[in-house]
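Figure 6 in text form: structure in, sequence out.
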């Protein structure tokens, strides 16, 4: 069976480096990637419900998985939002799809981002998870820029099993996440 490139790198390079750096007694103590969640908010779907269809097509092409439609939890009169209205999409990637998406995200999509100077280390939470905002979906090669109806942003959250910020930071750095110096 085909093994993704980053999964192979994790097993052959990252695990020995993490065991040596953090002096783990066993390679099973090394933290790993649990999942990647891609979230796309579509606030304009309140006025135009047809926008959801284009967003579903785009997110499905990017991730290779059918997205889940998220709904509003409570009503907000100022935004003309009612509880239960469809306002976003979410995809949770695990296993080989997760490694394939991360490989495409780090090696193709992020370098195509306009004025990209690296990801701030401050975008990590205290448990070692990283959230990156992408302003346009056209940075992914799967999207044909001539066929999109409008540009949409998305959040990509990389969830690790680490319980500390330092271990999660080094795990993601070994995977090739381009952190900025500041």
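Output sequence:
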């Amino acid at each position: 069976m085909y093994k993704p490139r980053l999964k192979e790198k994790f097993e052959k390079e990252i695990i020995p480096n993490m065991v040596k750096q953090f002096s783990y007694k066993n390679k099973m103590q090394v933290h790993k990637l649990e999942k990647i969640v891609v979230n796309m908010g579509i606030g304009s779907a309140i006025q135009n419900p047809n926008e959801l269809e284009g967003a579903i097509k785009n997110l499905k092409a990017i991730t290779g998985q059918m997205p889940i439609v998220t709904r509003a939890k409570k009503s907000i009169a100022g935004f003309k939002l009612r509880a239960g209205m469809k306002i976003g999409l979410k995809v949770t990637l695990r296993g080989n799809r997760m490694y394939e998406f991360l490989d495409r995200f780090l090696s193709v999509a992020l370098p195509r981002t306009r004025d990209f100077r690296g990801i701030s280390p401050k975008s990590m939470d205290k448990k070692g998870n990283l959230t990156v905002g992408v302003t346009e979906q056209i940075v992914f090669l799967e999207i044909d820029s001539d066929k999109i109806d409008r540009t949409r942003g998305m959040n990509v959250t990389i969830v690790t099993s680490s319980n500390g910020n330092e271990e999660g930071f080094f795990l993601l750095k070994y995977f090739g996440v381009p952190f900025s110096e500041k």
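Caption detail: The first helix runs from residue 5 to 22.
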